[in-house]
Design goal:
alpha/beta; Rossmann fold; 6-stranded parallel β-sheet; 3-stranded antiparallel β-sheet; 12 helices; globular
Length: about 240
């Protein structure tokens, strides 16, 4: 039996893994899909203090308080920074890292550093609420931003997407032992559509892993292709 911890990306919550989690559990595996502070069902905790460090701590605390070891730690999109930081702070609890069309950072980088053009466009639509600068505001059929086109899925997402604290996109990732994190077995699951829009230097990182898989779908692959993504994750547990 494997243990999966599934970390979502910007504007999402643990809810986005509902299509996948039952498929993993049906094979006897343990699955956690925490929601990062200020998002999803934890959006009532939103505040100006929320940054990347807070989100990393969210995941580290799940690993610690649930006493999880040899975890397959999965991060989608922005969640790639979160799982990298969590692995650095809990090296003894992480067995594999999986970047699910995820940001693959170097030490000292923020998401804004990695994708400046996308982040500039994102920040252009920022609004400040109670002292917190927020981006990724949900609008009509906001799921299309993430490559989702199915009307039923779009309606399901529409009432669950939440704005995201901008601070977490601009805070640089700080690693205590980058070399040790890079020794953790790593899998990159790339979306063809996303790869086509990445600048060359970032596209190259998508292929730097122990195992590289690719799927021809939109960015929210856990929603658009849950069975295929679940099968890929299950293959990691099988070794």
């Amino acid at each position: 039996m494997a243990t999966y911890v599934l970390v979502h990306g910007g504007g999402h919550g643990g809810w986005c893994y509902k299509p996948i989690a039952p498929l993993l559990r049906s094979e006897g595996h343990e699955v956690y899909a925490p929601t990062l502070t200020g998002l999803g069902e934890r959006s009532h905790l939103l505040g100006p203090h929320i940054d990347l460090d807070v989100h990393i701590t969210d995941v580290v605390n799940v690993l610690h308080f649930e006493d999880l070891t040899d975890v397959i730690l999965v991060g989608h999109s922005y969640g790639g920074l979160v799982i990298t930081g969590a692995a650095d702070r809990a090296l003894d609890r992480v067995g594999q890292l999986v970047y699910l069309d995820g940001a693959i950072p170097e030490n000292g980088e923020s998401l804004a550093d990695m994708t400046p053009a996308i982040m500039d466009a994102t920040h252009a639509e920022a609004r400040t609420v109670h002292g917190t600068e927020l981006v990724l505001w949900p609008g009509p059929e906001a799921g299309r931003r993430y490559g989702v086109t199915d009307p039923v899925a779009l309606a399901w997402m529409q009432v669950r997407l939440t704005p995201h604290p901008w601070n977490s996109f601009t805070q640089p990732l700080r690693l205590a032992d980058e070399a040790a994190v890079k020794r953790i077995p790593r899998t990159n699951i790339n979306c063809t559509e996303t790869l086509s829009r990445r600048p060359p230097e970032r596209a190259a990182r998508a292929y730097e892993a122990d195992r590289v898989l690719e799927i021809d779908t939109g960015h929210d692959l856990m929603i658009t292709e849950p069975r295929s993504v679940a099968d890929m994750l299950l293959s990691l547990a099988a070794g």
